[in-house]
Amino acid sequence: VPLTRKVYHLAIMQPNPRARSFGKHEEHFPDEVFFEDRIERAVRRMFEGEGNVPPQSPGIKIINLSIGDPERPFIHTPSPWARLLDWLSWKYRILFCVSVGNFSGHIEVGIPHNEFSALSDEQKIAHILKCIEQQLSERRLLSPAESLNSLTVGALHMDESGTYALGQRIDLMPNGALFSPISRFGYGFRRSIKPEILFSGGRQLYATPLTSKGQRYQTSPGPPGQKVAYDSSQQGEISKCVYQHGTSNATALATRSGARIYEVLAQLQGEYGEQVPDNLMAVLIKALLVHGAQHDDQAVKALNEALRTQKNTHRFKKVMARYIGYGAVNIERVLACTEQRGTVIGCGEIRETQVHEYRFPLPLGLSGSR
Length: 370
Prior knowledge:
This protein has about 375 residues and is α+β, with helices and mostly antiparallel strands. It has ten helices and 16 strands. The chain is globular.
């Protein structure tokens, strides 16, 4: 179902003429442009305007940023780009949904292809999880995914594209409850949980090695995945679609879910006025998105069986959070209550050394009942 509000889109990248000379369609930031400057100008244009241009969309509460710097994976200290997002989110009271980034490298399984393909699905998953564990240093977050105020989104190995022809490809991790094998992982600044939440990012298949002794798998395009509109090489063609995969797709779905939450909050604001302050909408959207996340039992079981050891057993919850954050989001869990469950919203601005106390008087019908 389409969103009720319009989406404001502002291009911050531009075509790469060097790639075009090779017949490729790529976008980039030119060498003479600072990433941070272009992002800041784009956001300022929304809320303050620029030059003679008035504010373009001052009512925006959520900004989707499905882009990362492949030359700057997060190591210890937040990047200037991440700190910029933290400042912009505070200044304009907005929520950035940022993709954690895709890992485009290969997966080395360490055993011949015919031996790996003979494994059961559960054995394949356990083996690939151990292989990915060995790649964690290569799979760090891409700047600005470590931003503290932003909501960082990872991808699930899941889509609704239906049946597909496998061909000369293989599904390395046949479990939709787990992360996508091309997703990157945290931790964030001071070992904070990043990415916090996961949404569907499309099932990513891998090309089978050319020989049965091959042990290295590269990503393969085409279905399954998420079907999206795509740029056409022919003038006037407006119906071209492709199947895509990754954390950018997942972040788009997270942003859309945030927009649906905003509709509910706006309705509550109309009923209760200042009790739902407009300047805290972005924080409420972030809190409710994470509130809708939960760990899938299948994912927890697979991670436990593959990665739990005597050395990490006392801190395995932290280890698990590195891979699946707070879990996959069930947005319907947040948008409405059930006969057995209600969601209570309370918010306010709090400063250092302050305490806010909330009291929830139970309805008479619940008093004394379990």
